[in-house]
Amino acid sequence: MYKYDDYDQAIVDERVEQFRDQTRRFISGDLSDDEFRPLRLMNGLYIQTHAPMLRVAIPYGLLSSKQLRMLAHISRKYDKGFGHFSTRQNIQFNWPALETVPDILADLATVEMHAIQTSGNCIRNTTSDQFAGVAKDELEDPRPYCEIIRQWSTFHPEFSFLPRKFKIAVSGAEGDRAAAMVHDIGLYLVSNDKGEVGFTVFVGGGLGRTPYIGKCIRDFLEKKYLLSYIEAILRVYNRFGRRDNIYKARIKILVNDVGQEEFGKQVEAEWEHIKEGVLKLEQKEIDYAKSFFTSPIYDDVAADDNSFNEVKNSNDAFSNWAKRNLYPHKIPGYHAVVISLKAPGIAPGDATGEQMDSIANLSDQYSFGEIIVTHDQNLVLPHVKQGDLFLLWQALDVQNLATSNIGLLTDMICCPGLDFCSLANAGSIPIAKQINEKFDDMDYLHDIGDLKIKMSGCVNACGHHHVGHIGILGVDKKGEEFYQLTLGGSSENDASLGDRLGPAIAKTEVANVIGKLLDVYVKLRKEDERFLETYRRVGIKPFKDNVYASN
Amino acid sequence: MRVIKNRSIIDDDWSLIRNIESSAPIPEGDVILPFVFWQTNRDQLLKTKKSHAIWIDGSIETESLLDDIDSFSIIALDFPIFKDGRSYSHARLLRERYNYKGELRAVGDVLQDQLFFMERCGIDSFQIRDDKDIEQALNGLKGFSVRYQAAADDTIPISERRKFK
Fold first, then answer.
1. What residues pair up with A188 in beta bridges, in sequence order?
2. Which of A115, A498, A527, B134 is 20 to 30 A from A317, alpha carbon to alpha carbon?
């Protein structure tokens, strides 16, 4: 993984001191609330329902065991002993005291971490594929390019006061696991007809109250032009994006207003001026970034130990876990293991300090000390030998980390909602709990199979409800919490926005309605068809009829 | 009035006029005029004045200044509210693309914690908001000792400074 040099370390160290000074000036009254707001936001610090919330950056989701141990330490020392992994592959602490935040940042800086640009109207953490570097369908590891973008975007002098926040995702595989189509910029590594690898560039995707799927403005961008092209997009956006209305300020609105073709032309015209300038990447810069993302030294004979197949035959719980929580690895005999942070009764994405420490130790023992945060709010140990799987599973089980539900109904994406967030209109976590209580039969969940439920407590869509197979949006109706359901969304290569099922439903009915939707699916599905496929084949009517007819 | 110029606090007599009818008589003295007014009265202004200072708000396209760019000794860039970042792009374009060598002055909601970014984009003078301590605001220029990007103040990106093995 990437290792800071003196330059990187100087920037985070100086940032700690800068923020310490800003916090001091705010507490002393030199800075007003309004003046401190953008400064703290650019540092991931929100003032929330109960206390400040601090969002710490995990660039493209990659953590070392040492970093995860530091997050565990922070959760215990400055918070209530847990952290919340977010859909942006970051972690959030919900209870730190404002005056301790500079100390938290100082602790983070000792392990090459920070909270820079995790919020505010600037370029946010670049996200990527949770199976980067290990997936079989990968053309090239996207993370060196994420790191190049991270450095270019950090304290960018021109783009720190954009009309609105700006999110970039990079995918390097055939299967898009980075939801690149719903990002302000989505980049796909592709090879052209000459066999050269470059990027396809999508722009203007996003969720929120006006969801759009990204539009392609360049089929093939040579790697050396990565930064100059992104800078051209940002410059056009910074100059011409709307600033008069916060809800119309994202780049997707600009792209939609001027049109995909015209927007592309403006970007290309700007790019012509700068493409051969200092932003042009030399091969040695790309090679330098790549040098940090080499494969570990794998065991050549890992595939010979086949004992885990025998254990599977005799242990149903382990067998279920192996069926859902393993992802194929490019090296024979290895698996990427997904650790579910969606155990029943736990707020999706939460982990305790003790769990984080335990995962850090297990990653040292079994996975070369690497951990990856997924945008589905789970954690991945990317390189586990199959001979170690049973021992790992047992150790995870002790920590309540072996729930075998990856990709299943209960592997929900869920925002913090009304319980923590001051923007929310409705609760998310209680709905997750309700769903977990109703669907507690593992055999049923495995029978239903792949199902992505995504839930947001307000239209800002932090829980990505638009792209859930079943999306749940919390709304406020005269002071009461109601839930608007959508069906048929996807954030993968076949990206689509969900269709509205019908009128919003009462809070107590959400799990029951999901049950009714699944009854229709079970009745109409053909053989191995997944929920999404059945929905796409039969359309919304039978689902709608079953939910609303009986009311 | 005191402004920060080239990292020092100086006394300065230029006064900024934001609102003026295009048909109004040309104001006397050292005044920074709205670009639209300047354009309307261009020929007369070029005859009668030696030094020209204009003010542009974020919606003026930088390119529209090009015909007369050599006439200006001060271009004042507006920050109506510090969150409005359009002038950062204007500044870089004027410096880096159009090679403007005169003074670029930040006016409006100009605060300590934005000065680092402004200076990096080529702004060299700052009219700090009235109610703020200009001496303290100078600290904002300290910023960071290293930068990842090349910009108007520094043409060498981090990649050039690193010694690639």
1. A171, A200
2. A527
Sequence-separated (6 or more) residues with CB below 8 Å from residue A151: A8, B148, B158
Closest Cβ opposite residue B89 in set A30, A35, A235: A235
A5 in reach of chain B (CB within 8 A): yes
Residue entry with tokens 């916060």: A246
The domain that holds B83 is classified in CATH as 3.40.50
Does any CB of chain B come closer than 8 Å to the CB of residue A177?
A: no
Whether the CB of A38 is below 8 Å from some CB of chain B: the reply is yes
A:B CB pairs within 8 Å: 99
Average pLDDT over residues A470-481: 93
Closest CA to B17 of B50, B46, B58, B54: B54
Same domain, A47 and A158: no
Residue A116 lies inside a defined structural domain of this protein: no
Looking at the fold, whether A148 and A273 belong to one and the same domain comes out as: yes
Q: Is B148 on the interface with A (CB under 8 A)?
A: yes
Read off the CATH number of the domain in which A202 is found: 3.30.413.10
A92 and B CB contact within 8 Å? no
Please give the helix or strand (H or E) that residue B2 lies within, else none.
strand B2-5
What one-letter code names the amino acid at A148? Answer: I
Please write the tens of the pLDDT for every residue from A226-263.
999 999 999 999 999 999 999 999 999 999 999 999 99
Chain A residues closer than 8 Å to B161 by CB: 7
- What is the ipTM, given to two decimal places? 0.96
From chain B, the residues in CB contact with A158 under 8 A are: 85, 88-89, 92, 117, 121, 151
Q: End-to-end alpha-carbon separation of chain A, Å? A: 54
Q: What is the dihedral of CA A133, A136, A138, A144, to 10 degrees?
A: 10
Provide CB contacts within 8 A for A278, sequence distance 6+: B150, B155, B156, B157
A496/A465 same-domain check: yes
Number of domains in chain A: 4
* Boundaries of domain holding A12: 6-109
Pick from B104, B144, B143: nearest CA to B127:
B104
- Residue A125 in any domain: the answer is no
CB contact under 8 A, A158 and B89: yes
Q: What are the tens digits of pLDDT across the range A208-231?
A: 888 999 999 999 999 999 999 999
Interatomic CA distance for residues A11 and A155, integer angstroms: 9
Please check whether residue A47 lies inside any domain of the structure.
yes
Residue B164 has a pLDDT of: 61
